[in-house]
Specification:
The chain is an all-beta fold. The protein has one domain (10-50). The protein has no helices and four strands. The strands form two sheets. It has a two-stranded antiparallel sheet with strand order 1-2. The chain has a two-stranded antiparallel ribbon with strand order 3-4. It is elongated. 0% of the residues are buried.
Length: 53
Amino acid sequence: MAGAGVGEQVVVVDIFRVRDGKVVEHWDVIQPVPETSANDNTVLYVLGELTTI
């Protein structure tokens, strides 16, 4: 990721739309993990469970 520092944690999401067994669209999001959060909903909080890598 351009501008990402060495050792910086990021969250990456890839979303694919498939039609007739072929990828017809692809989206990706790359976002740095903030050091602090204004609430308890961190970027790693997925579907009600804290997800760790």
